[in-house]
Amino acid sequence: MTGTNDVSSWVRSWSASPQAAHDGLGSFDDHPPLADVTLRQVVRISGGGRRVRVRFTNEFGTAPFAIGAAQVGLAVPGGGVRPGSERVLTFSGAPDVTVPAGAPILSDPVDLPLPGLAKLAISLYLPGRVETCTCHDPALETGWTIPGNAVAAPALPENAEVLPVRALISGVDLLADAPAKAIVVVGDSRTDGAGSTPDTNHSWPELLAARLAKQGGVATGYVSNQGISGNRMLNDGIGAAALARFDRDVLATPGLGYVVLSVGGNDIGISFAPRDDGLMADFLKRFPGAPVTADDVIAGYRQLVARAHERGVKVYATTIAPFEGTEIYTPEGESARQTVNEWIRTGGAFDAVLDFDAVWRDPGRPSRIREGFHAGDHLHGSDAGYQALADSIDLSLFS
Prior knowledge:
This is Lysophospholipase L1-like esterase. InterPro entries: GDSL_Rv0518-like, SGNH_hydro, SGNH_hydro_sf. The protein has 2 domains: 9-172; 178-398, Rossmann fold (3-Layer(aba) Sandwich). Helix content is 21%, strand content 29%. The protein starts with 8 loop residues before the first strand and ends in an 8-residue tail after the last helix. By secondary structure, the protein is α+β, with helices and mostly antiparallel strands. Strands 3, 6, 7, 8, 12, 14 and 15 form a 7-stranded antiparallel beta sheet that branches.
C-alpha cells in the first residue's frame, strides 16, 4: 500500500487479450496438455517502475487450475534469467494458488526495479493438468515449456520445448514512480503484429512504446496491446467481439488514460468477402453473424467512444488500411471501407484521428498497401510498414 503523499500509481505495462484455446489461429491445437510442467514466457514491458505484479488468467477455463510456484526476473537471451533479479511471486502471501474457472488472479506485488522496455521472464509451475488453456494466439515472442518444476532455473534446460501461444498470462502492472497513464490499443491482427518478425517487438503499439521511451518521461510510456488476430468489433469469431471485451480489456486497465480504436477492418472484409466454395469457405465459417454495413460499423464506434468518454478517457481512432490483393477483397467492401474512413476523419466522434490508411496506401492504387509495407499478403504489415505507422503518430497526443 502506498502512503497518502505517495504520487506513485499502478499502471498496465504489458498485456495480451485472453482467448479460448480453440478460439485462436490453431497454434495450440496439437500441443500436449499442460500438466506437471513449467511455462517460461518472456514479455517486453513498455513503461518501467519499481514494483511489479502479474495477472494470470483462467477466464476461458472450464475447470480450476493450480499454480504450484511462480517467479519473475529480468530475461536474458535464450530463455534465461539475470542472476540477482529473481523474485518469487506469492498470492495473498502464499506461494501457490488455485485459479477458479472463468477468473483471473493477480499476484502480490514484488520489489523489482524495471526500466522501460525491459524484458521480463515469467515462470509458473503447473503441478496438475490444465483442462482448458486460456491463451493468446500467436505469441510473437518465444516461450517454452519445461518438464517439472523449473521456475527457479537460471538457464533454459535442454529439454525445454517451444510454447507457441501466450498461456495463462494476460497482464503485467508496474508501480510507476510518478502518476502515469496507460495507452490501450484495441484492434485485430494488424494491431497484434501479424506479419512482423517474431521476437523483435515490431507490432506498431510496441514501436509506439519505443518512441515514447526514447522521448523520455514517465507519464505516457505505457502502451497495452489488446489486439487479437482475426478480431471484429461487432461479432464474435476469433476472440470475443471488441464491443463484448471492451470493459475487460480496456476500461478495467489500471491507469487507463487513452484508448486507440484500430478495429473494424475485419467486420467489413468478412461481411463483403466472396461467398463461394473456394479456399476461403472454411475460414469464413469461423465468423458467425449476419453481414454488417458501413453504418453498423460506425454505430459500433459510437458505442465504444461513449463508453470510454463516460470514464473520462480520451479516444483516438485509426483509419482502416487497404486490403486489395487479399481473398476477402471486393469492390463493395472497398466502398464500405472508404465510407467508414471518411466518417472517422470528418465525423468528429474522436478526440484525434491516426490516418493509417494515408500512411499505408499505394499512391498509384489507394485500395492497395504500398510495396514494402506489407508482409507479402497485401493485408498485414512488414516490419517497415509497422514502423511507418508508429512513426506517423504525433506523440503530443499522449502528453
